[in-house]
Specification:
Largest sheet: none
CATH class of the domain at 69-198: Mainly Alpha
Number of helices: 4
Strand content: under 5%
Order of helices and strands: HHHH
Distance between the termini: 81 Å
Helix content: over 70%
Structural class: mainly alpha
CATH topology of the domain at 69-198: Four Helix Bundle (Hemerythrin (Met), subunit A)
Amino acid sequence: MLSQTPSSSVDAALVAAAAAVIVSLLSLLTAIMSSRKSAVAQENLERLRQELASRARLNEEADKELATSVQGLASASESIQQLKDLIQLVLATPPNSLRAPEAIERALKTRDHFLGCYEKHHVTLAENERKTFHSAKNTAVDVEQVISIELAGKEWTAQMPEAARRQLSEARRRLTDYQNSLRDFRMDRVVRRTTRHEAGL
């Protein structure tokens, strides 16, 4: 059996040492790459978390705005309905059933309620919604004026002149148009927000 020369032993040791160094370098490189990938993944995860949190806040604000606006539109529609009911009461009440002073008092209260509702909610509405509500508010003032002036000094609402009755009938028709528009605005808001929710926006 041949024995190794000192030279071959040194060469073998050098090869082994070189191999160990290469293995160490590869291990170090792998660790560095793994560390970098982990850091990048962590950064991406944190960025995603922040984006989701920001989107959640925006959605929450949008939902609050929707709730406020929808409530404003609903209140506007209710105020219009109260005014329409008053007009119907004045026009349809049989003779000697509703006294004129009571009708005037109801007209004043309905007008004041309408003005208060407009003052409270108009700032939460879009421009087209606000314009419609404002037109309805002006009609509420007109209705109160017609009832107060035309029934002044009279005992019963049935004594209201025919021309004034036609004015109230026309006002009620306009109020119905405003009410329908506000209802459509409300539905449009809800549908648009629902669509954005479904789209994940």
